[in-house]
Design goal:
- By secondary structure, this protein is mainly beta.
- It is 11% helix and 45% strand.
- The protein has a six-stranded mixed sheet with strand order 9-8-13-12-11-10, with no helix packed on it. The chain has a four-stranded antiparallel sheet with strand order 3-2-1-22, with no helix packed on it.
- Strand 6 and strand 7 form a beta hairpin.
């Protein structure tokens, strides 16, 4: 009976959950990180605090260990993925022994990928970051005219994407593929015509989610772009009521920690009976 129940729960989770966004921004005062249902747009608070551990600059997800990573400046945090986060300080992000601030994060092949805060003296590049030690090394030095504030990896195909709201030489703002192996940067999709400040990026299964840092009175939506066509396909309401400087985002594919909550709920209900 228990095996049948688990199988039913897995089927239910697979049929009703299509993956979710996790987002946050670094607003002053009490900041909130949210789980967003990408089908309905419903936003659910998963962590809120006055402290920097609730104010992400960049964000990434490890689907193997169901671990959420995010940073504020040079401090890296992590939490097991759930609907109530328990932040832990992993340590300081460093480059050549010096504390280094990153603004975009992704995850691939057991390591974090990061893009640096552009006002620092660090070379513009995609860096590989050890998720245990925080030590970073350069993986791809791209043109310094780009400001890739958003970074993520499509876990379906391993491709790396960056979102820039500053590009020199007449190059368009928007989404670019960053091919670390070939050391190339290729334009994929634009910013919406109404937007010039989009900081967070999540990518999954050929869709890119552009995340604004608010306030939602001025930036009411997040944007979903089809990577193959480069076209805007829909919007998702932003839950950010206050202004911030940075926004972090990542996509949690199903099955994953959030999808498996359905199994826990079913099992708990069965035991109570």
């Amino acid at each position: 009976m228990r095996l049948a129940l688990i199988a039913t729960g897995m089927a239910l989770a697979a049929s009703t959950a299509h993956g979710q966004l996790i987002v946050g921004h670094n607003r002053p005062g009490i900041a909130t990180m949210y789980h967003i249902d990408v089908d309905t747009g419903a936003a659910t608070e998963i962590y809120a605090a006055l402290t920097n551990d609730a104010k992400p600059w960049g964000m990434a997800f490890d689907p193997v260990t169901d671990t959420l990573y995010w940073n504020n400046g040079s401090t890296l945090y992590s939490s097991p993925l759930s609907m109530s986060l328990t932040p832990t300080v992993v340590g300081t992000l460093t480059l050549d022994g010096l504390a280094t601030s990153f603004i975009g994060l992704g995850f691939r092949d057991g390591v974090l990928l990061g893009t640096p805060f552009t006002t620092s003296s660090v070379t513009e590049a995609v860096y590989q970051i050890d998720p245990v030690t925080g030590v970073s090394t350069s993986a791809y030095v791209y043109d310094s005219g780009f400001d890739f504030g958003g970074l993520d990896v499509d876990s379906v195909n391993g491709r790396v994407y960056g979102l820039t709201d500053s590009a020199t030489g007449g190059r368009p703002l928007g989404l670019y593929e960053l091919n670390i192996e070939r050391q190339t940067t290729t334009f994929v999709a634009p910013h919406p015509a109404s937007e010039s400040d989009l900081d967070g990026l999540a990518v999954h299964a050929g869709l890119a989610y552009y995340v604004s840092d608010g306030p939602n009175s001025l930036q009411p939506n997040f944007y979903v772009y089809d990577i193959a066509s480069g076209e805007l396909v829909r919007t998702i309401p932003s839950p950010f009521a206050n202004a911030a400087g940075f926004a972090g985002a990542t996509f949690v594919p199903t099955p994953g920690g959030l999808g498996l909550l359905a199994l826990a709920a079913i099992g708990s209900s069965r035991r109570r009976r």
